[in-house]
Each structure stands twice: as C-alpha cells, then as structure tokens.
Write a structure and sequence with these properties.
Layout (H helix, E strand, L loop, with lengths): L6 E5 L3 H12 L3 E6 L12 E4 L5 H10 L2 E4 L6 H8 L8 H7 L2 H10 L7 E4 L2 H11 L3 E5 L9 E4 L5 H7 L5 E5 L5 E9 L5 E3 L3 E6 L2 E7 L5 H17 L4 E14 L2 E11 L9 H4 L4 H9 L12 E8 L6 H6 L3 E5 L10 E9 L4
Parallel strand pairs: 1-2, 1-4, 2-3
Antiparallel strand pairs: 5-8, 6-7, 6-8, 9-10, 9-11, 9-13, 11-12, 12-15, 13-14, 15-17, 16-17
Helix pairs in contact: 1-10, 6-7
Bound molecules: adenosine monophosphate.
Length: 362
C-alpha cells in the first residue's frame, strides 16, 4: 500500500492522464507522466514528466526508478514497454490485460469463454476468410481491424453488394475480425473498479449516445430495467475477476429488446476498456468518488471509495468547435465545465466536457 506523497507513474499524457493526476493530487499522490508527445494536456498538472518514446529503455528504466507504481491511460501501450516496466515496478492493471484488450479477436474469445454474449464473429486473415465470414454472419456486418482501432477508425460496415476484396484492402490488408451487426436499442457501459484485495465496486450503469462514432453524451442512470442493470454489473465483475484486474475499467455493451422468457433485455458485450473511460466523466461532479480518484486509490492499493450518485447526471462531450462555447457554459447555472487545456482545436478532437447533475425524483 502506498502512502500519501508516493508517486504514480502514468503512461500517456492526454486528458485521462490529466484528470487522473488532478484526482491523485487531491489525495497527496504525485503523478509522473511518461509520453512521447512534447505538448500534452497532463503536463500542466503533474509533478514530473518524461518525454520519450515507449521503446526508449533508458528512459523507461529511469521512469521506473522514479515511481512507486505504474499505470496507463490507454490500452495501446506496447506489450514490451509494459513488460519492461513490470520487471521493475508493479504495473496496474497487469500487462496481461493489455494483451487481452489490444486485439478484438482475443478479447471476444475471452468474453465468450466466460459465458458472456458478444456479437457473432469470424477471424479474417485474408479476403478468402472474409468471404467465408460473410457467408456465416450475413450482411450487414462490420469488418474491424483486430488492433489499433478507436472511435470508429479501422472499421467498415459491409452492406449488400460491397466487393469483399476491395473492402479487405481498404483496411490495409491488416488482420481483421468480422462482426455480425447487432440491432441494439441502446448502448450502455459499466464503469467499475477492482482493488488490489479483490474489492469490487461499480457505478450505476451509463447510457451512451455516439455521433459519428464518437461519444456525444452519457446519461446515468441508464433507462433500462433494474434486473438488466444488475446483470450488466455482474458481467463487469466477472470480467474484472477473470482478468485479475486492478484499477478502473469500462465494459461497453449493447442492449437488445428481447422479451423472450424471463429476459426482457439482452446484453451483448462490445468492448472492454482497461482504463478510466469517457462514459465515466460524469463521476467527477455526480458521484462521491470520481472514476479518476477510484483508479488512483486502486493502483495505490487503497480501499475503494463510494460510487454513490448525487443525482441524474448528463455528460456532454465538447468536440472540436463546441469548446468555443465555454463562456456561455461558465454562466450556466448547474453546468460543470471541464476543459482539457489542448492548445489546438481540431474537428473530432475531444476538447472538454460539461456535466449537468439534477436531483432525482424520490
Ligand atoms: P467500437 O469501435 O467497437 O467501440 O465500435 C464503435 C461503435 O460502432 C459502437 O459504439 C457502436 O455504435 C457501433 N458498433 C460497433 N460494433 C457493432 C456491431 N457489431 N453491431 C452494431 N453496431 C456496432
């Protein structure tokens, strides 16, 4: 267990690292950010920084020497970097989690292996395998690169008539997974934490709306049946326990209207994020313990905090030019504004978010 004054090393310097560092500072924990970028949002708020490539072993060794525990804000940390650091200091969540979540095929097999539903899928190594996959799963279906996809990048919706060889080449010939198209009624996520001692706590289920493949809003609690919410939390718990997870994770799921037997809403897991997640940003203003504090507590080996909600929370991302509305938002009663300190506004870039928490009817 770390004590106040200890230093947590964070790989990555974006807004998630920035909010982790701020939450840690409130509890007397210092953050040391390691990032290849020279101008990172987290640099404004950290105690120390290393600007180096993730392959730079001398820089990694010095970083490991300077910190008490290592964590990360993104799942695409190179496996060798995580292993190199894990040989020197505890890395939380453990590097095996990265191997599980970096590859959509490995991730889906892991989830199915726990008896949890995913979309139907097929391994697509070449155009021939794509034809066999389409024969099995039908159209529409979605072709995704196995690795390095985010916010809808690296995926193509396959509709009737699309030429399969051309589609496969459009993703650069990279190893892919074909997924059956899920006709969902809602997208939800469970943001939860597991401590070093196995303690598990989940926030209330979040309901997410995406626009152009980027999260637009999160509303908590999700408008789902209570038994669906309970099942969603159990799914997140089963995943966290099977991965021997330490820290905050998010499990994104689709809800399908089902009404068969006792199950009214079916849950299908889409993706696991081994980190704090955009759909958990509302917790900064809407819960007793934010997801960022919760993650810092978990990786420090501390007890987890209360996940109690203060009300109904609606979080809206400020994407690109949306952030130019900051003056009006500052003047809005009840709007909690967060800006990430990014110097350049770019279309599609997450610049900040705003959360509105309102009391719930008793
Ligand atoms: P992902 O990159 O897997 O998180 O997918 C981004 C978004 O694409 C999801 O949030 C869904 O809105 C949509 N999507 C992904 N996979 C599927 C699927 N198998 N069926 C229907 N929609 C999907």
């Amino acid at each position: 267990m770390l004590t106040p004054g200890a230093t947590i090393g964070i790989l990555g310097g974006g807004q998630l690292a920035r909010m982790l560092a701020m939450a840690g500072a409130r509890l007397g924990l210092k953050s040391h950010i390691f990032s290849p970028g020279a101008n990172e949002p987290a640099f404004d708020v950290c105690a120390a920084r290393t600007v180096a490539r993730y392959e730079d072993e001398a820089a990694l060794a010095a970083f490991a020497e300077a910190v008490d525990v290592v964590t990360y804000e993104f799942e695409n940390v190179p496996a060798r970097t995580a292993e190199f650091l894990a040989a020197r200091k505890p890395v939380r969540p453990n590097p095996r989690v990265l191997a599980l979540t970096q590859d959509r095929l490995v991730e889906k097999r892991f989830v199915q292996g726990l008896g949890i539903d995913t979309a139907g899928f097929a391994d697509v190594a070449d155009a021939g395998a794509l034809a066999r996959g389409v024969a099995k799963l039908g159209r529409p279906s979605i072709l995704k690169t196995r690795r390095l996809g985010y916010d809808g990048k690296g995926q193509i919706l396959l509709q009737g008539g699309a030429d399969l060889a051309v589609t496969f080449r459009a993703l650069g010939g990279a190893p892919c997974i074909l997924e059956s198209f899920v006709h969902f009624s809602k997208e939800i996520s469970v943001v939860a934490a597991r401590g070093v001692d196995g303690e598990f706590r989940a926030y209330d289920v979040c309901e997410n709306v995406h626009e152009h493949h980027i999260l637009a809003t999160t509303t908590t609690p999700a408008n789902i049946r209570p038994e669906t919410a309970a099942r969603a939390a159990l799914i997140a718990r089963a995943i966290a326990e099977a991965a021997d997870y330490v820290g905050v994770l998010a499990v994104e799921m689709f809800v399908l209207d089902h009404a068969v037997g006792p199950i009214w809403e079916r849950l299908v897991v889409n993706e696991i994020a081994p980190r704090v997640h955009n759909s958990g940003h509302w917790t900064l203003d809407g819960a007793t313990t934010s997801q960022f504090e919760q993650h810092m507590r978990a990786v420090a080996g501390w007890p987890l905090g209360s996940t109690r909600r203060h009300g109904r929370a609606v979080m809206s991302n400020l994407i690109g030019d949306d952030a130019n509305g900051w003056r009006e938002l500052l003047g809005e009663e009840g709007a909690c504004l967060h800006l990430y300190g990014k110097s350049e506004v770019r279309p599609g870039r997450k610049m900040g978010h705003v959360t509105r928490v309102t009391p719930e009817e008793p």
